[in-house]
């Protein structure tokens, strides 16, 4: 059985990757256990502990270690993974603009150190998979009528924020390292991932908890901004397909649901589940790139990827999970 090492394996995406891969791979996880949102500490602590218990229950080994630490090399040598899945680093774009120096160390320096450690070790990887971001595209293009054109993997990447810039820089250094050292790589660009155990204050998490709290959902500028919301199970299904396919070697794939949805639509879905929630408009200066759906035709054709969770279904599943746990961290 091939061995997979998930970097960031106790984080939101990394944890679900561990669960997805454990049925067909020998999985281990490494995580630095960094809380990126201090004002969400109780929720973060609860779900981090929950993930640790679940991985232990599944027999998945995990190590608390930063890949920049010297001790990581010995962990790597001991595990001798065939595949490395790098799902680590700062999860929220806004945080990178608030603290770009920390973002550089956490996103770019960690990635660079990881590649250097791999290069200086004796392991022979069959694949390196990096979880990048659709933020590398910057503003999505529009047609002559002003409609947003779904972003393709081949279009020029022009990030407008620190997060997207560091993610793109990582993609470039991965290509260079892996080509030079003959390591097959796959780069994944997801969008607006959501689902059980998320505690990074993404908009889906914020709106859902406002529903449980009978609070007020604030819509920036009417909530007309679009995101391609991706349920976590769809993303991990796609990454598993990429890990098992030689067609994914040295390629980049968009993995999302493939449909842009307005933020106000998300609010209306939460309102249907929680009729007592309030929705208010807030005028503010736009601070996000213009976005919409990702073009996922390449993943469909090359990997036979087919997402199954429209936003309504994904949010209902997410809500059902939170309802079973929210009393533990309120």
Properties at a glance:
330 residues, 7-stranded parallel β-sheet, 16% strand, Rossmann fold, globular, alpha/beta, two-stranded parallel sheet
Characterise the protein shown here.
The protein is of the alpha/beta class and 330 residues long. The chain has one domain: NAD(P)-binding Rossmann-like Domain (Rossmann fold, 3-Layer(aba) Sandwich). Strand 1, helix 1 (12-21) and strand 2 form a beta-alpha-beta unit. The protein is 41% helix and 16% strand. It is built from 11 helices and 13 strands. The chain has helices at residues 12-21, 41-57, 71-79, 93-98, 100-119, 162-180, 203-212, 232-243, 263-273, 297-303, 311-325; strands spanning 3-7, 26-31, 61-64, 83-86, 127-131, 185-190, 193-194, 216-220, 226-227, 230-231, 251-255, 261-262, 278-282. It has a 7-stranded parallel β-sheet with strand order 3-2-1-4-5-6-11, with helices on both faces. Strands 7-10 form a two-stranded parallel sheet. The longest helix is centred in the first third of the chain and has 20 residues, at 100-119.
Question: How far from one another are the termini?
Answer: 41 Å
Q: Which overall shape is indicated by the principal axes computed on the Cα atoms?
A: globular
Detail the poorly predicted runs.
none
Per DSSP, the total helix count is: 11
CATH homologous superfamily identity: NAD(P)-binding Rossmann-like Domain
Biggest sheet features: 7 strands, parallel
Radius of gyration over C-alpha positions, nearest whole angstrom: 19 Å
CATH architecture title: 3-Layer(aba) Sandwich
